[in-house]
Amino acid sequence: MGAFAITKDVVIIMLGLAIGAIFVRSMTVYLVDRGTLKAYVYLKRGAHYAIGALAAIMLLGTIVHVPEVVIGLIGMVFIAASVWSSVGSRRGAVS
């Protein structure tokens, strides 16, 4: 989102996306090394649902305008729900 707000130059947008992808990969490797992804078992599934929802919104965006706030909130809701479910399943397993 931020890259499109700054410029319409494709090269700069590609650089921003590449830096973002490297950051996300580094964060994922870090979380795997610490075992965090084992603790939050639904996080991976929630991320997949969030990506699917964002893809659907991109397609919908070709027909109607979808506010950026709505797009960000949908992704956050999926991730928050997956973290909540993971914590709930851990508590249920411990009891």
Order of helices and strands: HHHHH
Tell me the Rg in angstroms: 16 Å
Number of helices: 5
CA distance, first residue to last residue: 43 Å
Mean pLDDT: 82
The helix fraction, in percent, is over 70%
Helix-strand category? mainly alpha
Shape: flat
Unreliable spans = none
Q: How much β-strand is present in the residues?
A: under 5%
The total domain count is: 2
The total strand number stands at: 0
Q: Mind summarizing the main beta sheet?
A: none
Write structural notes for this entry.
- This protein is mostly helical.
- The chain has 2 domains: 1-34; 37-95, no CATH class.
- The chain has 5 helices and no strands.
- It has helices at 2-6, 10-34, 36-39, 43-60, 68-94.
- α4 packs antiparallel against α5.
- The radius of gyration is 16 Å and the shape is flat.
- The relative contact order is 0.11.
Summed up:
Helices cover 83% and strands 0% of the residues.
Which descriptors would you attach to this protein?
about 100 residues; mainly alpha; 2 domains
List the helices and strands and how they pair.
Blueprint: H1 2-6, H2 10-34, H3 36-39, H4 43-60, H5 68-94
Helix pairs in contact: 4-5
